[in-house]
Amino acid sequence: MSRFLSKRYSELVPYVPGEQPADPSGVVKLNTNESPFPPSEAALFYAGGHARSYNLYSDPDANELCEVFAKTVGAERDQVLAGNGSDELLNFAFMAFCDDGRPALFPDITYGFYTVFASLNRVPQVRIPLADDFSLNVDDYINRKGTAYIANPNAPTGIALPPSEIEKIAAAKPDDIVVVDEAYADFGAQSCVPLTRKYGNLLVIMTFSKSRSMAGARLGFAIGNKALISDMNTIKYSINPYNVNSYTQALGIGTLLDGDYTKNCIADIITNREYTVKALRGLGFELTDSKANFLFARHPRMSGTKLYKKLAERKILVRHFGAERIDDYLRISIGSRSQMEKLIKALAEILVEENAGGGTR
């Protein structure tokens, strides 16, 4: 770093995104939880025909997009806010709802950006340990003052809570905000959006990066009480009023209008997930009960580091975090059937080689 960086950020540890290979040819990319499917042709056609001229600013309120999205999820227009991906909206939530008297509460094993956002915004953070089986105990949040950030399903474990459990937190702490990050909810979890009509302290964050094939376009939504969305808008209009570009707005509308395509893609990913679970267990892997578009797996005879490196040698990319408690685990995105078959074949070969060589962890 230079000598000019503000002391406020001198100890900031930035988020490390998954590797994006410069030359993706021949690479089986299962490390960033992207959809293996492109946006639908209907969505692309709609975007091409309806995107506003690029010499003009985009609609700062993304009104048409938000109206279609609100209708899709069963909310009112003034209950939703569009963002440049869900990460931007999560950051807005840290800015709006945390301070010295309201620390950020989140699990010790969860989405890595939470601790970055807390540090960036200089708010206290309390990292609450998950149980040995990586489950979350809601009582740990009910008994603490602060804004709770709960990824549901959690990342990288993939474990989901039923809305009734999250409701316990919102009901028990009416003076604290509960933020539910539903980036992966479409793959097997129940959404908490219906609860936002009952609890004014509940905010749900969604993304179009996973189930709706728009990771590169950057689009997310916040859904909550009208007053909470107004607070988020105050932050947004103080930073970047035109946060969602015209093409992304149009592509988002086209994607929502072609809901059948999204449903079919989700169904294929779930099918591929179950296929991969069965195959990995057949190879001796231990897995969490993932309801996301990824798996969290370890092998009792090989370290996560070793498996990660041997897969990388075969041009198969998965995610290895190397953090305490999860060092032996790999997070494996669910791709196309052919990608998952290549992964299984490579893992089988690696395990055979290890057995033949008498390898150790």
Strand order of the largest sheet: 2-8-7-6-5-3-4
Biggest sheet features: 7 strands, mixed
N to C succession of SSEs: EHHEHEHEHEHEEEHHHEEHEEH
So, CATH architecture of the largest domain?
3-Layer(aba) Sandwich
Helix-residue proportion: 25-40%
CATH homologous superfamily classification of the largest domain:
Type I PLP-dependent aspartate aminotransferase-like (Major domain)
Strand-residue proportion: 5-15%
Rough shape?
globular
CATH class of the largest domain: Alpha Beta
Question: In angstroms, what separates the terminal alpha carbons?
Answer: 36 Å
What can you tell me about this protein's structure?
The protein is α/β, with parallel strands linked by helices and 361 residues long. The chain folds into two domains: 120 residues, Aspartate Aminotransferase, domain 1 (Alpha-Beta Complex); 217 residues, Type I PLP-dependent aspartate aminotransferase-like (Major domain) (Aspartate Aminotransferase, domain 2). The chain contains eleven helices and twelve strands. The strands form three sheets. The chain has a seven-stranded mixed sheet, sandwiched between helices. The protein has a three-stranded antiparallel sheet with strand order 9-10-12. A two-stranded parallel ribbon has the order 1-11. Helix 2 runs parallel beside helix 8 and helix 9 runs parallel beside helix 11. It is globular and about 65 Å long. The mean pLDDT is 96.
